[in-house]
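The freezer alarm interrupted the setup, so I double-checked each line after restarting. Inputs confirmed:
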Amino acid sequence: MSKFTTILIKEMKDLLRDPKIVVGMIVVPLLMFPAMGAMFRTGIESAEQKTQIAVIDLDNQAFSQAFIAALENSPGVSLYDVDSNNVEEGIQKAESAEVKVLMVIPEGFTADIQNASGTEIEVYTIVEGLGMGEVISTARVDEIIKGINRSLSEKVIQEQIPTMNPAKVLDPITAKSVTIVQGKRVNVSPTIIAGLISSQSFIVPVVLMVMILFVAQMAATSMATEKENKTLETLLTLPVSRISILAGKMGGTAVVSLIAAVAYIIGFSYYMSAFQFDSQEIPISMEDIGLSITPIGFLLLGISIFMAVLAALSLAMILAVFTQDVRSAQSLVSFTIMPLVFPAMILVFADINSLPTALRYVLLVLPFSHPTIAANAVVLKNYAMVLGGIAYLAVFTLCVLYIAARMFSTERVITAKITFRRKKGNRNP
Amino acid sequence: MTAIQTTDLVKNYGSIEALKGISFAVNEGEIFGLIGPNGAGKTTTLRVISTLLEITSGTVRVFGYDIQEEPEEVRKQISYLPEEAGAYKNLSGKEYLKFMAQFYSDGRNIQEMIQIGMSISRLGDRITDKVSTYSKGMTRKLLVARALMMEPPLAILDEPTSGLDVINSQEVRKIIRGFARKGSTVLLSSHNMLEVEFLSDRVALIGEGLILDSGSPAELKKKYNAQNLEEVFMEAVTHE
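Predicted 3D structure, all chains:
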């Protein structure tokens, strides 16, 4: 076994046996996110249970009966009989039976509709808490009334003008959307295409941000643990090149942080899936609109992400060298890496070319923006942009790696230290 | 053959002069002790010879290899035990020994090295437990075993009995003596001068970054008309 492999395996073993890492970075995301998602789901499902509605019909004519019949046939609604014509008594009865909604159909309801003079029903909603269930019940009642309104309108139109199609009277105009993407015409609205592209462009920055933060934290932990546990000096006097030590530590850290990142992403996707309810399938795929990623695109995107991860690893190793314990290493790395990673999230919402010039240059200078830029560019097959980003990342990564290797080859790996001195003037008397 | 040759060794930390031009030689097969109070420059000397620190001026050769020019060759000759050392807490004692032995496996039997390490550490069944469950004394014995199990040409031991009780200290001293009898060279430091007197063939007295005197314990005691090395050291400081 080569000395590099020996260090790599030790590094993985050491990290994977650390309860803080295993629990905090692997088990918790795998369990916590799905559990949170399940809780949300349970809450929403309980709110989605059938809404009981009580009705007082003071009209008792054709349209009020039609209204009640439509209510009864509405999905997710069950009618409750309050057996009363008095509103106050009806509210009391509904409340005691835990019925949240009471509708009062006024006298003359049918006549008013027939005369097209408009009418009003009273809707009493009993709110006991501020949970999601209350909001959903109210929103559902609004939807039901809207639906019934439409069917009553259709009924009136049919009665008044039997020769006309009520649907065409109510919606005389419909739009047929044709969107031109990259010169290709597709018969869907731009909203659908925007949704499709944003769902794709959201993944890379989020995954990348998680990966880089995990990798950086893990690398800092690995290096700082050596210092905190006083094992670094022994390691540096072993008959193994310093570059092998650095590479072994970086390799082991990368593998463990990738495991942690995968656990995080699996957990997070379970969490997100809790919010997808009866989502309409997008009637078109990226291939249909010529926005699929080719194998070359995937390769270039992979190289870009790999470079970014390598840069984050090296940067974290360098930063950790300046600290004496795990906690200060993690803080220093967070303060340094996060400002380099977060700006890339802008690219989830806006294309790099549509941003103001200054902001565009800031993003181009930040190394961790490039994989996100690449993720959009490979879709649009703008490979020159991707290659430019890779070249920049390669230069940045090589510089950081060189500095890390230099630090490991000199005594600075032992003696470097950042001290936070408090200014005398700031001290409290 | 000379195991270590330091000539006019100077080491500065910024504006602080830790070593002010020290010279001494350690012969192959001997136990050489550096004695002096805390802050005298003992640890800096050992860290320089172990290739951890760069020198400001002067030269250091280990078995003929220059520590600045050929640090990787020097590392093949040495095994360093720092004063404040630790072991990987999430590995067992045996796994730790195996991890370390793998770096010295060129043509050597790893299992044999591990067996020697286990026998030196005298940790019994606890050798398979995680290092995080060890007491300070157990960890130190494991580290001493790690430093000596590969039978390096030169063992550099900084305060080898640091943090150990009397019984464990005695045990470690015996281990070091036994190790040197096999022909290896030992360079050790301690502020416990009686310990160094017991262990060392020759000693160097170090104070404020300078070598005050050197010789065998018997020679030095005779020269300063002293009962032990503690008295020798006090006399040497007074003469300075």
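Quick read of the result. The two ends of chain A are 61 Å apart (CA to CA).
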